[in-house]
Design goal:
homodimer, DNA-binding, about 65% helix, Arc Repressor Mutant, subunit A, alpha+beta
DNA sequence: ACTTACAGTAAGTCATGACTTACGAAAGAA
DNA sequence: TTCTTTCGTAAGTCATGACTTACTGTAAGT
């Protein structure tokens, strides 16, 4: 599943910051490196991870490369969260109704 | 922000698997350890991380501890994803309209 | 009181991955 | 062509964190 790569890609703080930098206008690697206290190759490596996760796309512009956020990149993770969250809520609801039934049973037995 | 802890908590595969095990009914630590090829203390450590991230709650039951998924645990991460995703989509829409305007300008200049 | 079952913490090991510097490649400018 | 800019990759270092075993604590059963 691709949401795994998205999770590990966004887990690292500086890599997540780089991704957030690309929310707006596209940026080239040197620009990104200037925004963070790490070397340019480090930024390239982070961009590679983000690209493999589908979060980011690259576009050649002369010798430079313009990186931008992929609009569909976060979709798999969102879908995953929705299903898991739904499951948790369902189980929670089941437990609540279960406890209510137990309560009713206890009251019924008490009124015999 | 608390979504950071959620991200790092869910990034690890076995820890994510443990969290998913708790989607349904609550489980005690030994049960969880039996489902995975790691020791019981390792599971305890993972549960600690999940608990600090707000993804999981514990409830004492004799000497055992019942762990369950917190229904609100994923909410901060979902909110974060929504805002970022919205920003990306907005920027993408801006770019598209920008390109359309450029196209119109070019056509206009061409028709002079 | 003693034993059993269940769990958290401490301490140490080891692999992963986030960095660095050095190097090579490709495209535009002089 | 040569120089410059921009970038990716290779290789090596170092810290973090995911494990292990050993120990301690606590509640329940006999």
């Amino acid at each position: 599943m691709t949401y795994e790569r998205i999770l590990t890609a966004l887990a690292d703080p500086t890599r997540r910051a780089i991704f957030e930098d690309l929310r707006g206008a596209p940026l080239q690697v040197t620009r990104l490196a200037n925004r963070h206290p790490i070397s340019r190759p480090a930024v390239s490596q982070h961009l590679k991870v983000l690209e493999l996760a589908g979060l980011v796309m690259a576009q050649a512009e002369g010798t430079a490369r313009l990186y931008r956020a992929d609009p569909k990149g976060l979709a798999p993770l969102r879908a995953y969260l929705d299903t898991v969250w739904g499951d948790v809520l369902d189980a929670f609801a089941d437990e609540v109704t279960q406890q209510m039934e137990d309560q009713n049973t206890r009251n019924r037995d008490q009124n015999r």
